[in-house]
Design brief:
229 residues; seven-stranded mixed beta sheet; globular; alpha/beta
Length: 229
């Protein structure tokens, strides 16, 4: 796993959590080859649980990239956790204010500098009763179209069992199965030279969310098939 660029506190958090993941999670990762080894890239995930961030960071590191997480700014104000976020060079988003759009500027700059930026386009946990992705917010589209870097759709499944919404402590036993699968980059090239209107951003966002949903459907279908045999 890459260590350069992780920062002391972020690196320490990874070193503490990694043995927990290895010992208590049956983790299956596929599609790492879709993540470029260098250059700017956006990893776009579905959102089921607070455990998603850990699963997403593990996926990025296993893909030999150090992620910069786009996350709500309130996390930076939590003791210790704030140090981890600042140390890792993560990107705060001020939710519910005009500053939310301004938060994309450092994200686009990071992408242009060749960084890997990790984002949950839904902005919050899905409220779909069957845990399918919701309509995404336009931030991921704006970041992608302004930076013109690849957007890799990634789906995670099983994190909702590891750390159900509304709980603080993970349910480590029995060991939970978590699967993370990435797909090919979402093709947005035909939108690059267009004005970033609401329609264009909506189209790009829909393509990203459709790709994530397709990846998630593959995981769930495969698991359902294995349970029948």
């Amino acid at each position: 796993m890459p260590r350069r660029g992780r920062g002391f506190w972020f690196s320490l958090a990874i070193d503490v959590l990694w043995p927990v993941v290895v010992l208590f999670v049956r983790l299956k990762v596929r599609g790492k080859h879709h993540v470029p080894g260098n250059g700017g890239v956006i990893l776009a995930f579905n959102h089921l649980s607070n455990a998603d961030t850990v699963a997403a960071v593990v996926f990025a590191l296993m893909s030999h990239r150090v992620p910069r997480v786009l996350a709500k700014a309130s996390l930076w104000r939590i003791p210790v956790f704030g140090r981890v976020m600042r140390s890792g060079g993560h990107i705060p988003v001020e939710r519910g204010t005009v500053k939310a759009s301004e938060a994309l500027r450092p994200a686009v700059e990071a992408l242009r500098e060749g960084k890997c930026v990790m984002v949950f386009p839904e902005g919050t946990f899905t409220n779909d009763p069957e845990n399918w992705p919701m309509k995404g917010k336009s931030g991921v589209a704006r970041m992608a179209l302004e930076s013109r870097v690849p957007v890799i759709p990634v789906a995670a499944w099983g994190t909702q069992d590891l750390l159900p919404r509304g709980t603080i402590l993970p349910r480590l036993l029995p060991r939970k199965k978590v699967e993370v699968v990435a797909g090919a980059p979402v093709d947005l090239s035909d939108l690059y030279d267009l004005e970033l209107t609401a329609e264009v951003l909506g189209e790009a966002t829909a393509r990203v969310m459709d790709a994530i949903t397709t990846m998630l459907s593959g995981i769930r279908s495969a698991q359902a098939g294995s349970q029948k045999t």
